[in-house]
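The protein record passed on below.

***
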Amino acid sequence: MIYCPAEYEKSGIDAVPRPYILVEEEATGTTDVTNSELAYLGYTCGGGCSGLTYYGGQGSIIKGNEIHHNRFGFYSKAVGGLILEDNNVHHNFMYGFDPHSGTHDMVIWNNKVHDHGAMGIICSVDCYNIVIDSNEVYRSAGSGIMFSRNMYDSVARNNNVHDEDKCIFVSQSINNKVYRNNVSNCETGIDNSEQQ
């Protein structure tokens, strides 16, 4: 469903109402987004309007897209089975990819993720069975790849992460694997100092 609300009149670059795409929790079937350009979407509204958002749509594929200049490149909550593949995700106001709050069984593979106002790829709050594989991640504020707040049973492998504050940051998360990544030109290559 595509929305263009006007009820959130605020000030600031992140608060100007703009259209966004939301797959609602009640959605049945998949909502695939392929070979498209998604740009200049989303704003801060307290939930669901960050750009491209999945609350439902189990098993959807987001592949071969140019995703840029949105609030978030991608956000999800409590959804599973998604594949994010072969996308160029860049210059978003906050995060590139942000699977969140119970997102599970997701594959983030072979994407170029760069030049974001916050993390490149961050999975946060009870996410599990996430595979982050063969991505190039660079020049975002903060970390290139971050496992955050009880992310578990997940893996980051074969990624090329460079030109970040922290290339890969594991924070308050356990039972994950980080291996065969190429990290370079970061203040910290791999940081797991905030383990539970």
Notes: The longest strand covers residues 188-194. Confidence is low (pLDDT under 50) at residues 1-11.
